[in-house]
Design a protein that fits this description.
Length: 118
C-alpha cells in the first residue's frame, strides 16, 4: 500500500483524509523537528520508509532528479488554492494518483491535469 509523508505547506487535514481511507500517512508536524524538519531529513525518511513525499515545494523535484531522493514525489502544482478546494481535488483524484505512483516516481497534480514524469 502507498505510504505518504505530507510536507509542512500542506494542511494536516490531507493526512486525516488519507488515514480515513486506510493509508499510512504522516505530516511533517508529527516528526521530531515538526514543520522545521529539513528537506534532507524528509528525503531520508521517505527513502527509509518508502513514503511518497506530498509537497508544493519544487526543491524536492530537483533533489529527486539530482540525488534520487525522495523515494517518490507527488508535487502539488495548483498555484493558489484554498485548502477546501485542494482537499476536494486531492480526494477526487486519489485513486488515479495512487495508480500512477505505483508505476512512476514523480507525479504532478495540477488543477486541470495530472502529469506522470518518470
Amino acid at each position: 500500500m502507498t505510504r505518504f509523508l505530507v510536507d509542512a505547506h500542506l494542511p494536516f487535514r490531507l493526512v486525516r483524509l488519507l488515514r480515513e481511507r486506510g493509508y499510512d500517512a504522516l505530516h511533517t508536524s508529527e516528526l521530531p523537528r515538526g514543520n522545521a524538519t529539513p528537506d534532507r531529513e524528509i528525503n531520508a525518511l521517505s527513502l527509509r520508509e518508502g513514503r511518497v513525499v506530498v509537497t508544493k515545494d519544487g526543491d524536492f523535484a530537483r533533489s529527486l532528479v539530482l540525488e534520487g531522493a525522495p523515494y517518490k514525489l507527488l508535487l502539488i502544482s495548483t498555484g493558489n488554492i484554498s485548502n477546501r478546494e485542494l482537499e476536494a481535488l486531492f480526494l477526487r483524484e486519489l485513486d488515479r494518483l495512487v495508480g500512477l505512483l505505483a508505476a512512476y516516481r514523480y507525479v504532478e497534480l495540477g488543477r486541470e491535469v495530472i502529469i506522470a514524469h518518470f
